[in-house]
Design brief:
The chain is built from 3 helices and 29 strands. By secondary structure, it is mainly β. The chain folds into 3 domains: 106 residues, no CATH class; 248 residues, Jelly Rolls (Sandwich); 78 residues, Endonuclease I-creI (Roll). Strands 9, 10, 13, 15, 16, 17, 18, 23, 25, 26, 27, 28 and 29 form a 13-stranded mixed beta sheet that branches. A hairpin with a 5-residue loop joins strand 3 and strand 4. Helix 2 crosses helix 3. It starts with 18 loop residues before the first strand and ends in an 8-residue tail after the last strand.
Length: 474
């Protein structure tokens, strides 16, 4: 196709209008055959390293799929064209030889390891489709499924301005591989893994260099077809397979006793506690065991600690963001087999997911549950023209109305009000009837999920009521 021509991009070669791509695993051709012009920029450009020659504009596509790009002079480049090879030579290296530093400046940011690729046709050409990008169809269990591999997309905020990294149909199953809450505190899954420490460790110090800290990475946004602002996005979690290892422990200053001198100060001492995840009867960790020590194991109960839609107007970090859109609520009922109901404020819903826990005790007192990487399979449906006060959860035998607030009693008030509204709107139970039952029906329960003392994080509870009670009493 001639330069500047319009038409569909070849799906085997084309890039989407925008995608984050880990070049280390890229083996395809970096070109859009319909437009033959791409824009490349380090995804971490505005927080870049001292070597800012990463913002470039492509001017042509060379033979054999090589992309010739001209670094932007305003970004610190020389303006001379540079070439990207199809095998993934996007890299940034520096070498010291005879006392001098020789910098080989290419297009991969050594700090962020990703670039942003965007077809310049923009909205004028909406039919550009992904080729070898993070969101691709891969064979899984004999069928084709969209999967985002770990490390291909990493975000630290719920931001409606983010370009979708995946587009799915309703009821389409897809998989997301998530990182742990500290972006790889345990580096490998060997029998003797390298484990970073909470204090005096370069890995954690790099996360703490930002404020709020770059904890709790998420993947997203995921665009769900047919979902619009004013709808409710129903997220159906199919399964969660935790990684071989998780970790818990004590972060200094976090939790109610994080600065306490009681008990000889043991609860204020930093500690990383590794928890090994052992496969269960299925051969997977989804029904496995958590090995806390040689003397203590328990059943894994994996769930998603952070699940959110992009808020309507504000941008929240994935660490501190909580609200009617969901967020980092560490609710152990956001679990496989349950349906999570979230308000949608934008076209596509714009779903974010991350922060998987292998298990958690009520309150998550230290602020660190069983934090782990995981593979999550899920699908989404849409409830049209509905708005709810905050998160709601449908379990096989009960429903849960979530409350998020400070102090704890106000979270309970909000959860109960959420439940009264829900039963009135969807089940025809009069508010007065529900209110009285909350005091006298033993089947009504309050669940404590998150009660962490850390920065601005709010407390999270759930009001739970069995489905066989969801009808008017009179």
């Amino acid at each position: 196709m001639a330069d500047g021509a319009r038409g569909d991009c070849d799906p085997d070669l084309a890039l989407p209008r925008r995608a984050e791509l880990d070049i280390r695993d890229f083996q395809g051709r970096i070109e859009c055959p319909a437009h033959r012009r791409l824009h490349c920029a380090c995804s971490g450009f505005f927080r870049s390293t001292p070597y800012p020659v990463f913002r470039t504009r492509a001017t042509s596509v060379a033979p054999r799929g090589q992309l010739t790009a001209t670094p932007s002079v305003s970004a610190g480049g020389s303006g001379r064209p540079r070439t990207i090879s199809p095998a993934g030579a996007l890299s940034h290296t520096s070498q010291r030889s005879q006392g001098k530093v020789h910098r080989a400046r290419f297009l991969r940011c050594a700090r962020y390891r990703k670039v942003s690729l965007q077809c310049l046709a923009g909205t004028r050409h909406a039919t550009c489709r992904p080729g070898d990008t993070p969101a691709v169809h891969r064979t899984q269990g004999g069928r084709s499924m969209q999967i985002i591999k770990r490390g291909e997309v990493t975000k630290y905020a719920f931001d409606a301005r983010d370009e979708p990294v995946l587009r799915v149909k309703q009821e389409e199953s897809f998989q997301i591989e998530t990182d742990d809450a500290l972006s790889g505190l345990i580096e490998d899954d060997s029998d003797n893994p390298k484990v970073h420490q909470f204090v005096g460790d370069a890995h954690v110090e790099a996360l703490n260099a930002a404020w709020p800290p770059k904890y709790n990475p998420v993947v997203g946004p995921i665009y769900v077809e047919g979902c619009e602002a004013g709808d409710v996005l129903a997220v159906n979690l199919e399964f969660i397979d935790p990684w071989r290892y998780g970790f818990s422990g004590i972060l200094p200053g976090i939790g109610p006793y994080g600065e306490s001198t009681r008990w000889g100060g043991q609860c204020a001492e930093p500690r990383v506690q590794v928890i090994e995840h052992l496969p269960g009867p299925s051969g997977k960790t989804r029904d496995g065991k958590g090995k806390y020590s040689d003397k203590l194991t328990w059943d894994l109960e994996p769930f998603c600690g952070t699940l959110a839609t992009a808020p309507e107007r504000e941008v929240f970090t994935s660490l501190l963001g909580q609200g009617p859109f969901g967020g980092n609520i560490d609710c152990r009922d956001v679990a496989p087999g349950h349906t999570i109901l979230l308000n949608s404020y934008h076209e596509g819903g714009l779903l974010y997911i991350g922060d998987i826990h292998g298990g958690q005790g009520d309150t998550e007192f230290t602020g660190i549950a069983d934090e782990t990487r995981a593979t999550v399979q899920l699908n989404c449906t849409v409830i049209k023209n509905k708005r709810q006060p905050t998160v709601r959860i449908v379990k096989p035998e009960s429903i849960v109305a979530v409350g998020i607030n400070l102090p704890m009693e106000h979270a309970v008030y909000d959860a109960c009000a959420n439940m009264i509204d829900w039963l009135s709107e969807d089940y025809g139970v009069k508010p007065q009837d529900t209110y009285i039952r909350m005091s006298c029906d033993p089947a009504f329960r309050i669940r404590t999920y998150q009660m962490v003392r850390a920065i601005t994080i709010q407390h999270v509870v759930g009001a739970e009521y069995p489905k066989h009670r969801l009808s008017p009493a009179f």
